[in-house]
């Protein structure tokens, strides 16, 4: 075998798939940041198109999540344990950004132990607020999203918040 080629490891296709998926998610995040910046620029230009309501809603959700993170830093997480609400907010944020969220990603983001996150995801799924689907390309991964009912409820609640 030439010294320029390594023998393929059995896990390389899986690792490559994971890397590509992570890059795609990062590109989606960057695209969302560009959309937000464009909305800010449009808002500052007289006569520019009206801002998209989903951008306003996204800002509201971003602000709430940022406030909750800061609150946890100042007072500690043990005083403000609302994992179900944090999960609903995070999943609504992902929906507004048109991003798919894996169980692993939501567990890492939630700020509570993974077992707690999974327990709350199950509870939310049983009550019809969250749906979990298996990834048909990677059997080890599951996607998590709000149901239509949960999405509508979040939109209604957050529209009231902004008034």
Attribute tags:
single chain; 3 strands; 64% helix; globular
Give an overview in words:
- This protein has a domain at 50-161: Arc Repressor Mutant, subunit A, CATH 1.10.10.
- It has 6 helices and 3 strands.
- The chain has helices spanning 12-44, 53-75, 83-96, 103-109, 114-126, 148-161; strands at residues 101-102, 130-134, 142-146.
- It has a 3-stranded antiparallel sheet.
- Helix 2 (53-75) packs antiparallel against helix 3 (83-96) and helix 4 (103-109) crosses helix 5.
- The chain is globular and about 50 Å long.
Low-pLDDT runs: 1-5
What spatial order of strands do you see in the largest sheet?
Answer: 1-3-2
> How much strand content do the residues show?
5-15%
Principal-axes shape call: globular
- The CATH H-level homologous superfamily of the domain at 50-161: Winged helix-like DNA-binding domain superfamily/Winged helix DNA-binding domain
Span of the ends, CA to CA: 69 Å
| Helix/strand structural class | mainly alpha
Radius of gyration: 19 Å
Mean pLDDT: 78
CATH topology of the domain at 50-161: Arc Repressor Mutant, subunit A
* Tally of helical segments: 6
What percent of residues adopt helix (DSSP H or I)?
Answer: 55-70%
Order of helices and strands: HHHEHHEEH
Summarize the biggest pleated sheet: 3 strands, antiparallel
